[in-house]
Fold this sequence. Notes:
transmembrane; DUF2231 domain-containing protein; DUF2231_TM; membrane; transmembrane helix
Amino acid sequence: MITFPIHPLLVHFPIALFLFGVFIQIIAFWKPTFYEKMATYLFLGGIVGGIPTYLTGKLDEDYAEDYFGEDVKDIIEIHEILGITTLIVFSSIVIIKLIFRDKKSMRILVILLSLIGAGLISFTGHLGGQIVYNDQQLPELQIDDGFEFEYEND
Length: 154
């Protein structure tokens, strides 16, 4: 069993690559020459980073259940399914882009799939945050800096 979670260290790279790739893919609709390739490379980077991220998430599953409790087990399962689905969506985008390279008719499909992928990765990340930062696990923050602030709402 792993005693230190690796998944949280890796997860931000594919998220950033995928989301930036979606942004670039939208720009590519109007300026396809450079931006189509750039979006493809960003998606490929997200996939390459997403595979070890998924695998370390699988390894960290027992750690998360032990550390955060059984009440997060269902959230972990949904998080896992959405992670796989996200990888499948972005892999499909790359395959479509490679097969139908210069087909203008595919641009809208690729943008729609990209937006679906962005939604999936955002919700997957949200669930990951719920696993880590659920209400039972947050320590009560107490700061005493000697500064008092009063807010009056008129």
